[in-house]
Amino acid sequence: MATPPESPVEEHAYELEPNRAPKPIPVALEELCRQTKFSKQEIRVMYRGFKTECPEGVVHEDSFKDIYAKFFPHGNSALYAHYVFKAFDVNCSGAISFRELLVTLSTLLRGSVYERLRWAFRLYDVDGDGAITRQELAEVVVAVHELLGRRAPPGSPAARLDDAKANEQVDRVFRKLDLNQDGVITIEEFLESCLKDDVITRSLQMFDTVC
After folding, report:
1. d(Cα 47, Cα 69) in Å, to the nearest integer?
2. pLDDT (tens digit per residue) in 87-103
3. Can you give the residue ranges of the EF-hand domain (predicted)?
4. How far separated are the first and last CA of the chain, in Å rounded?
5. Distance from C-alpha of 88 to C-alpha of 200, rounded to nearest angstrom
6. Rounded to 5 degrees, what are φ and ψ at 28?
7. Residue 151 burial (C-beta neighbours within 10 Å; 0-12, 13-18, 19+)
8. CB atoms within 10 A of CB 122
9. 74 closest CA partner among 1, 141, 149, 139
């Protein structure tokens, strides 16, 4: 009977954990170093923490939402955590592997402005079709407000005022990003607009830094 393949994390275990008994499997640490801006020691430390928190070798969305809830206890983080999870889940498998987590963290923490903006585009492109609509941008803005506990109780006068302000913000940012005014923002428009406009970059920074 064939032996089932080991998990992606176990695949790296020998070199990621030098004290562990050698196993006749490929070593991926050098590859992880090439794919990220982390050192071998940093990767080993993160791997040990990942393995402790995620013994299955992957992070599922429910666990990801729980993590966000701990960091943002005063708001409703579930919706925003959902969008961030999708952006981390590069392979669209429904679970984040150690490799995916590491590559994304490298981009967010040590990537160039260009690299971080490309990741931000992926976050706002909710349906993953390669373009951002006004509705998608609005969904992320609402999710951020909920995350930070800035939305008043539904139906209240304060909530209507919050919605009006959010709509104004979305309209303002969307008009600047949609350079040809065709109703969608492409990756080229997104990058061009953000790289030349500090106001847009600051407007978007609030959303990116809660990742």
Report:
1. 22
2. 999 889 999 999 999 99
3. 76-111, 112-147, 165-200
4. 44
5. 23
6. -115, 0
7. buried
8. 19
9. 149
Between helix 198-208 and helix 157-177 the angle, nearest 10°, is 130
Torsion (CA) 139, 144, 148, 153 in degrees, nearest 10: -10
Tell me which DSSP letter residue 184 carries: E
For residue 62, give both structure tokens: 């429910």
What is the pTM for the complete model shown?
Answer: 0.76
Distances (CA, A) of 134 to 52, 139, 141, 173: 40, 9, 11, 9
**How many residues does the structure list for the chain?**
211
Q: Do 125 and 131 touch, CB atoms closer than 8 A?
A: yes
Helix 61-71 and helix 78-88, axial crossing angle in degrees, nearest 10: 130
In angstroms, rounded to a whole number, what is the distance separating the alpha carbons of residues 204 and 192? 14
The tens digit of pLDDT for each residue in 63-119 reads 999 988 988 888 899 999 999 999 999 889 999 999 999 999 999 888 888 898 999
Spatial distance between the Cα atoms of 59 and 8, rounded to a whole number of angstroms = 12
Q: Which two tokens stand for residue 160?
A: 């209507």
Q: What is the dihedral of CA 152, 157, 162, 165, to 10 degrees?
A: -170
**Residue whose pair of structure tokens reads 């729980």 in the numeric block:** 66
Instruction: Report the C-alpha gap between 188 and 185 in whole angstroms.
Output: 8
